[in-house]
Amino acid sequence: MNDAEFNQIVDDYSNSLFRFALKNIKVSEDAQEIVQNSFERLWINRDKVKPGKIKAYLFKIAYNLSIDFIRRRKNESDIN
User: Fold this and answer.
1) Distance of alpha carbon 50 from alpha carbon 43, whole angstroms
2) How confident is the model over 4-61, as pLDDT tens digits?
């Protein structure tokens, strides 16, 4: 995957990935961070992800990051 292909993937999936993250965590700024981190992980692992599996990879990463965020938020509220 080169820069142009990655930029096209960002254009194709960023809006739907943002809506998915926002639906899960309800905070716009945090959803944006999840989307950014998902694309960052895709770029880091670009040689390992098969071209036909990019969308599934992005959504799986966003889901896992959302769960981690929810758990952190719950733990912080339990401590306070």
Assistant:
1) 12
2) 999 999 999 999 999 999 999 999 999 999 999 999 999 999 999 998 999 999 999 9
